[in-house]
Amino acid sequence: MPSKKRVTVMRDVAKLAGVSHQTVSRVLNEHPNVKQETRTRVLEAMQSLNYRRNLAARTLVTRQSHTLGLIGFETTLFGPASMLYGIEDAARAAGYLVSIATVRNLERREVLDAVDRLSQHAVDGIIAIAPKPAVTNGLLQAPGGLYCVAVGGAGETDAVPTVRVDNAAGARLATQHLLELGHRTVHHVGGPHDWPEAQERVMGWRDSLYRAGAVVPPVAFDSWTAEWGYRHGQELARDPEVTAVFCANDRIALGVLRALHEAGRSVPHDVSVVGFDDMPDSGYFLPPLTTVRQDFAELGRRSLTLLLEHMADTDTDEPEAPAHIVVSPELVVRGSTAPPPR
Amino acid sequence: MPSKKRVTVMRDVAKLAGVSHQTVSRVLNEHPNVKQETRTRVLEAMQSLNYRRNLAARTLVTRQSHTLGLIGFETTLFGPASMLYGIEDAARAAGYLVSIATVRNLERREVLDAVDRLSQHAVDGIIAIAPKPAVTNGLLQAPGGLYCVAVGGAGETDAVPTVRVDNAAGARLATQHLLELGHRTVHHVGGPHDWPEAQERVMGWRDSLYRAGAVVPPVAFDSWTAEWGYRHGQELARDPEVTAVFCANDRIALGVLRALHEAGRSVPHDVSVVGFDDMPDSGYFLPPLTTVRQDFAELGRRSLTLLLEHMADTDTDEPEAPAHIVVSPELVVRGSTAPPPR
DNA sequence: CACAGTGTTGTTAGCGTTCACAATTTGGAT
DNA sequence: ATCCAAATTGTGAACGCTAACAACACTGTG
Q1: What is the model's pTM?
Q2: Which residues fall within 8 angstroms of residue A213, CB to CB, at 6 or more apart?
Q3: What count of Cα atoms within 13 Å lies in the side-chain half-sphere of residue B220?
Q4: What's the sign of the alpha-carbon dihedral B143, B149, B155, B158?
C-alpha cells in the first residue's frame, strides 16, 4: 500500500520558517507580540506548504468549535428556508459554520434529540426556528454553556432570547387596508389553530375590526396550505356578504383565489383578498396578491447577531434578561384588493 | 468567580465503573470483546454521570468528524431546499450531521471558498447542489481524501459522482403529452441559457418535436422567475398560432398563465400550459398546472447514499469510475392542458 | 554597568479520545 | 495440575493545537 502522505501540520510550518510551533500559533491567532518580519516569514511558509489549521485540535483545547447549530422545522418552505439563508449568511460573515438539525415534528422528543445531536458536535450556540413553544422549551434542556436563540413564530418566552415578526401588527395592516377601501367587514381564513403565529394574526385582525366597530365573522382554522384555502374558499364564495378576505398566509390565499374564481366571483371586483408573507411569486397570482411582507432573511440575520451578542456578554458579565427583537412587517398592495362592489 | 464545573469525561466514567478509560472507549465503540457484565456497568456509569463523548477529541485522532458538508445555491427556493432536507434526513439516519455553506453566486472563487470553509471544519465529505459546472469543477479542488458528490443540475461530469434528474426525459413527457392532445406544435419558454438543466429541457422538447415531425418554434431564455414567464407570455399571447406552451419550470408557467389570462386567452381552452418541478402549490394555480414532477428530497437522499458508498469503498478498494445516478421525473396531468381549439 | 521593563520567542503540559501493544484472566484440552 | 489460545482488560503514546510560563533579547534609566 502506498503510504498515505501526511498532511501539513503546524510543526512543519514552524520548521520551514525556522521558528517554534508556538510562534506559528501566535501568527494564526493574531497575537500582537510577533515581529513583523517573523510574521511574514511564517505566513509565507504557511502559503507554500498550503497549511490549514486543524479545527478539531483547536476545538479540543479552546472548547469553541466555531460552529453554530440550527434547529429547523419544515425547512422546505419559503419562510424557514429564507431564515436559514439569512442565518448562514450572517454566520459566515462572523466566521462561523452552521450545522443543521431538522425536526420532523414539534414533539418534545424530536426537539430534545436535535439539541442533543448538535451539542454532541460541540456547537457554540443554537438558533431554533421555533414556530411552537415546544421548541423553545426543548431549548431549555440544552446543556449549560450553550447559548440559544429562537427565531420566528412563538410569542415571547422569557426563557430564551427571541427574534420574531409582529404578526398582530401585520394582520392589522391587512385588515385596516381592507376597511379603508370601504369593506363593511373582513373575513379571515386561519392557519393551524395551535400555532402562535396563526393566533397572533387572528388577534390583530379581530382587534382592527373591533376598533372599527365592524362585525367579527367566525374564523376557521386548519393548516397553512393552498388546499385548505381552496376548501374553505368554496364556502366563503357561497356567501354573498363576503367582500373581503384576509388569509393567514399567501398559500391559503392562492387556494381562496382559485375557489372564488371557480365560483364565478371576480377578484378584486366582487371580493378582495389579502395574504401574508409575500412569497417570491405572490405578485404573479391571478390577480397579483396584496399581502403583508415579512423579511425572513433579515429575521435570520438578526437572530444570529443576537446569538453572538448573547454569547459575548454572558462571557464577561452576569446573565441578564433575555432580549426580544420584534420586526415590523409591511403591507404590499397589489391587484387583489379594491373597494367593495356597490 | 464561581469555578466552572468540569464536564464529565471518559476517565470519570471509568473510575465510577471501576475500569480503565480504554474499556469505556471500547463500550462506546461497540468493540466485541467486552464482557457483558462490564459493559452494563459502564453503561450505567455513563447514564448516571450523563456522559457525552467529546467529538472534537475523537475527530482529532480518528480524522473523521461525522459531519458532512453541503454546498448550496439559492437554497431559499423549493428545489434546493427540498434536496437539503432529503440530504439532512438521510445523513441523520446514517449518524452524520450536515454543515452548510451557501454560495451567493456560481463563480469559481465563491465555490472554492465554500469548499475551503468546509474542509477547514474537517467534514468527511461534501455534497454540492450543483446546477452549473463551475461548482463541480470547484469540487475537484477539494483536498485529497475528501469525497464529493454533485446533485441536481449539471450533465454528467466524469470527475465526480452525480445524482440528477433526467431533464430531457421530463421535457419529452411534457411535450408528448401536448402533442398527443392534438396540438400542432409546442412552444417553449426557457430558463437561463447557461444552466445545463435549462438546456437539457430544451433538448428533450426539441427532440420530441423532431420525432413528431412538428415545427420547432424559436426559444427564448432568461431566468427561472415568474416575472420572466409573464413578460414572455405577453408575447406568446399575441400569436394566435400558439396553442401549447411548455415552460422550463412552474414559476415561469405561473407568469405565463397570468399573461395569457390578461390577454383574454383562456387556459386550457385556447392555450395549454405545462410546467416543470411540481412545486407544492402548483395544483392550485388558475387553472391547476399540468407539470413534470421531480422528487427533490429523494434526489437528496440518493446523493447522500451515494456519497456514503463512495466513502466506504474508496476506503477499501482502489478508486473506480464515478457513478452517475439518473432519476426519472413523472408527468402530473392537471387542468392546464386540453386539446387545442378546433 | 547593573537593572527594570517591555517585546519577542521557546518549552512544556495538557485538552479527551483512540490506537497499538502489553498484561492479565479465562476456559478447555492435555 | 498444566499449558496454550482466546477473551478481556490495562498502559502509554499519539492526534494537533493553545495556555501558561520561562527564557531571552533589546531598550533606556539610574
Answers
A1: 0.93
A2: none
A3: 14
A4: positive
Record: contact A99-B102, CB cut-off 8 A? no
CA nearest to B85, candidates B115, B123, B117, B127 = B127
DSSP string, A184-234: S--EEE---TT-HHHHHHHHHHHHHHHHHT------B---SSHHHHHHHHH
Closest CA to A165 of A154, A149, A176: A154
Give the CA-to-C1' distance from B186 to C18 in angstroms. Answer: 64
Q: What angle do CA B228, B229, B232 make, to 5 degrees?
A: 80
- Give every CB contact of residue A302 below 8 A, 6+ residues apart in sequence: A151, A163, A325, A327
State pLDDT tens for residues B104-145.
Answer: 998 889 999 999 999 999 999 999 998 888 888 888 877 777
Segment A151-168 mean pLDDT = 83
As given in the structure block, the three cell numbers for residue B298 are 429523494
B97 interface with A at CB cutoff 8 Å: yes
CA A122 from chain centre, in angstroms, equals 22
Report the alpha-carbon distance of residue B98 to residue B66 in Å, rounded.
Answer: 9
Rounded Cα gap, residues B264 and B267, in angstroms: 9
* Residue A73 φ then ψ, to 5°: -130, 130
Please, what is the end-to-end C-alpha distance for chain B in angstroms?
87
Give per-residue pLDDT as tens, A103-128: 999 888 999 999 999 999 999 999 99
Report DSSP letters for B169-230, one per residue: HHHHHHHHHHHHTT-S--EEE---TT-HHHHHHHHHHHHHHHHHT------B---SSHHHHH
Q: CA–C1' span, A8 to D24, in Å?
A: 29
Phi first, then psi: give them for residue B111, nearest 5 degrees: -65, -45
Place of cell 443543521: A100
Residues 6+ apart with CB under 8 A from B16: B45, B48, B49
Element (DSSP H or E) covering residue A181: none
- 8 Å CB contact between A289 and A126: no
Distance, in Å, from the CA atom of A22 to the CA atom of B21, rounded to the nearest integer, reads: 30
A254:B227 CB<8 A: no
Q: What is the DSSP string of B82-143?
A: HHHHHHHHHHHHTT-EEEEEEESS--HHHHHHHHHHHHHTT-SEEEEE-SSHHHHHHHHTSP
Chain A residues 269-308 within an 8 A CB cutoff of chain B = 280-281, 283-286, 288, 297
Which chain A residues are Cβ-neighbours of B229 within 8 angstroms? Answer: 284
Cα dihedral A308, A313, A318, A319 sign: negative
Q: How many other CB atoms sit within 10 Å of the CB of residue B317? A: 8
- Ranges of residues in chain B whose predicted pLDDT is under 50: 1-4
A147-151 sheet: strands from edge to edge: A324-327, A162-165, A147-151, A125-129, A67-73, A97-103, B97-103, B67-73, B125-129, B147-151, B162-165, B324-327
Which nucleotides in chain D lie less than 7 Å from some protein C-beta?
7-12, 14-20
The residue behind cell 418541478 is B277
- Grid coordinates of B13: 466514567
Q: Is B321 helix (H, G, I), strand (E, B) or coil?
A: coil
A125 forms bridges with which residues in the sheet? A68, A147
Write the DSSP symbol of residue B2. P
Put simply, the chain A residues between 312 and 331 with a CB less than 8 A from any chain B CB are none
Contact between the CB of B57 and strand D at under 7 Å: yes
Round to whole Å and give the CA distance between A270 and B7: 66
CA distance between the termini of chain A: 87
